[in-house]
Design a protein that fits this description.
By secondary structure, the protein is mostly helical. It is 74% helix and 0% strand. It has 16 helices and no strands. Belongs to the UPF0718 family.
Length: 329
Amino acid sequence: MFQEKETNNKWGYILLALFFILFIYGDLVPTTLITNLSPSLLDMNTIFLSIVLEAIPFVLLGVFVSAIIQTFVKEESLKRFIPSNPILALFPAVTIGAIFPVCECAIVPIVRRLIQKGMPLHVGIVILVSAPILNPIVFLSTFYAFQTDLTIAWARMGLALIVSIIIGGAIYSRFGNSWQLIEPKSSIQHEHHHGNRLFETLHHASDEFFNMGKFLLIGAMLASIIQTFMARETLLDIGSGFLAGPAVMMGLAYFLSLCSEADAFVASSFSGLFSSSSILAFLVYGPMTDLKNTILMAAYFRKRFVLMFIITVTVVVYTITLLFDLIYL
């Protein structure tokens, strides 16, 4: 196990070093090599770099928060904070999600660490789906992007709150308190720290970052390929109906893999083409699960659980946005 971890870290360091070398010295590459590339490959490269550069600061934030939790948060503190009643435990989970200023890239390692520390699975999942939406930064970006229709900003927050609680309840009814992380529960070491806590925090953050880095690169590459070659005109043709609109926009949100702090500006560009409920489906679904986030989750959680999580989020978001359209819009 230790040798495998060292090998993963070695390849992580190599990948990161190559990435930064290309980033710093990329202008030395002969221009003929670039101009001879097809426009599609150039677009794919641009999208890939934009996704990676946009995600890395938030991934770093997430792994440092995760490392701080590992070093300083005791299991007993979590158990005192979370009610023993599984239903009542959903509400403090939403509160935690609302105060975490992180996007979907950063929240995965944080939730994994909280579960390792003893947080119930369904509580961690509520934090995972609510934090990328229910935080002040996302609200302000949505408020600014939809200044002509402020209903979208408020509805996004309200629907995310409702959907998060429903998803948490659904996950508990299906999985209870079962262990769904890839690593066996018996292998999780609950450490008592007596040394240099700053060094321990940096060590945990480094391990987490290089473990996640390769999955981030894979997810960004797949998302850039799909964005480059996806026929958006076809989406517009099939997404105009009451039932089809939210489904199409949810699919678009999944494959675009946008950061939740910036997705509102992309969504606003569809205002004249899709219904408000479809745009809300895009804004609620994307931060809860997307292609990049799925790959990150698959690095930590069991594959069957990840599949059931995606199905649950998809069904709940689609149903709630349709009901919102019928009741309110």
